[in-house]
Design a protein that fits this description.
The chain is mainly α and 33 residues long. The protein has one helix and no strands. The chain has one domain. The longest helix has 31 residues, at 2-32. The chain starts with a helix and ends with a helix.
Length: 33
Amino acid sequence: MLMAKKVFQQLLKNVYLKLYTGHLKIIFSQAEL
């Protein structure tokens, strides 16, 4: 159970990082315009 929790947290972190970097890219592309 503990192993599954660690894997789940890792997946959550990866998704969060993807969303975060995507959000920054949108902000930067809008700032350039």
